[in-house]
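We treat protein structure as text, and this decision shapes the records that our systems exchange. The tokens are whole numbers drawn from a learned vocabulary of local backbone shapes. One such record is reproduced below, unchanged from the form in which we store it:
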Amino acid sequence: MNAMTPIRTPLIEAKLPQDRTLWIKNEGAQPSGSFKIRGPSHFLSMNDIPSGSVTTASTGNHAIGLSMAARAHGIKAIIMVPESTPAKKLEAIRRAGGEVRLINGDYEMALACATTFAEESGAQLVPSYDHPDIIAGNRAVFSEIQQEIDTTGYTVFAPIGGGGLFSGAITAFETGGNSVIGVELSPYERVQRIVWDGAGDLPPMSPPPPSTEGVAIRTLGKLPAKIMRNADLASFTSVSVADLRNTCGWLWHEHKIRAELGGCTAVAAALRDTPAGHSSIAILSGSNIDPALHAQIVSAWDAHQN
């Protein structure tokens, strides 16, 4: 195992009021700072890349993960990212060996550019979430949890960006008496709209609040949408940016875990919704947050507690 490949991440037990237990899977501890190294690493291990190059669209974390995985496999990564992508993530992409191309628009515009580039250049498009090999790589998050604790009957909270991580949760917990709750960021709720109403993507919106870009997108992958549609064990909820900020502060104060706001999505819902006397699992999906923003959030949390 080297610094460009996925690791087994910590599973942290948090005791909560009302005799509740929350198990937090800290994917922010990955070399890439998020779970997004898992899918690309699995994809590249399963597919030949004759062109010697890959491309993708990303708001940051998938780009970092793919750049690391590509470097580990000795191939080139060309990444299309929205201009609004945080500087910390752009630096991490370049440090991992990715070639950054800034796109004037949101994630959906970057994806269109990556698709066109792949068609014209021959580079292999590696989706952020809409591919069975990406979902299989993400499933390892939950397989590790199942190997470490008895999860029978636990509620599992997973964030929904494009749907790849949540799909991994659904496939991992098809048996075992679990309910799996997908957590969206308000006002970017789109599962009902896309999966069951057939209304298509959300309309263009203003740039998302800083550090929420991974969950503040307007679309879902076609394969994740199909998996969600056929999953009897799945339900959905949403959290606000205020919930994310509060959870970010709590994670640092109680556990000294640094988390990006989008990475707090599932933990925020679990803290709020785990019933008295019950246990749940939540995925902390990423830690790539600007240090100054994190310090400001923690300071505000401390002031509110006092």
